[in-house]
Amino acid sequence: MIENISDTARWVAVYRAMESERPDALFRDKYARKLAGPRGEQIVKAMHRGRDAAWAMIVRTAVFDDIIMTMITEHGADMVVNLAAGLDTRPWRLSLPPTLRWADVDLPEILVYKTESLTHEWPRCRYEALPADLTNEATRRALFTRLAAEGKKILVITEGLLIYLTATQVGEIARDLARQPSMHWWLTDIANPRLLAWMKRSWGKTLEKGNAPFLFAPEEGSAFFHKFGWKEHTFRSTMLESRRLKREMRGAWFWRIVERFVPAKRREEMLRMAGILLLERADTSD
């Protein structure tokens, strides 16, 4: 069972391992199984229909990979700041330029566990692990100021983080990021209230016992971030991406039929129930 929020990183690492071991894998994370460990497998087994949820995390990982590489190779991102990095291994597994700076930020325990587990592996870029509690305002602002001074075109990542925060906490992070001119883009995942309600019914009790309840799913979607200085650059629907990548959820055929008979507005709402959102500063245009 999940005992604290850091255990969710082991949970997701199991899904990355599952995908990596497929002959037609969308990505290869040779470190995922080791990082997940027996604890990760126990968590997935304890979750209601735990393995059935793998598709969404796998799609998210693949789409994040794609966007990250695009922002680096085509848009000139010279630094990546991964907030609540957990057990993400992109600095080791992606074909990153050696000049790229990559900063993983998370609680000390999870970063120590990851870096010690990967002691004999070399990241492909200039990597740094920075322990910090992002819910502490003074710590967060000092960290953002320091990192902003080290890059010119920074891509910030919050993968699997925001859903565990309150709207107030997300707004504070958004505002603090926007205060830093060099932080050009922000890549995150987002869900709407309907999906959040379903997720709570499926896994809510398990996560609440581990003090990691699902909280954030703004009714207004990406518009939530406008008042904090961010605008939508790109939105990629999890549902559409799962079709493209051939990693759809069980019973997806039913929703494809339903889509044909609902009004366009309702269909758009369905497609935006969950997705990967790339934000850019509201005062810039890429």
State the order of secondary-structure elements, H for helix, E for strand.
HHHEHEHEHEHEHEHHHE
CATH superfamily: Vaccinia Virus protein VP39
CATH topology (level 3) name = Rossmann fold
CATH architecture field: 3-Layer(aba) Sandwich
- The radius of gyration over CA amounts to 18 Å
Topology of helices and strands:
Layout: H1 7-20, H2 32-46, H3 54-73, E1 79-83, H4 90-93, E2 101-106, H5 108-117, E3 126-131, H6 137-148, E4 154-158, H7 167-178, E5 183-191, H8 193-209, E6 230-237, H9 238-245, H10 252-259, H11 264-271, E7 274-281
Helix pairs in contact: 1-2, 1-3, 3-9, 6-7
Structure explained in plain terms:
This protein has 286 residues and is α/β, with parallel strands linked by helices. The chain has a single domain (52-281), classed as Vaccinia Virus protein VP39 (Rossmann fold, 3-Layer(aba) Sandwich), CATH 3.40.50. Helix content is 45%, strand content 16%. It has helices at residues 7-20, 32-46, 54-73, 90-93, 108-117, 137-148, 167-178, 193-209, 238-245, 252-259, 264-271; strands spanning 79-83, 101-106, 126-131, 154-158, 183-191, 230-237, 274-281. The protein has a 7-stranded mixed β-sheet with strand order 3-2-1-4-5-7-6. The longest helix is centred in the N-terminal third of the chain and has 20 residues, at 54-73.
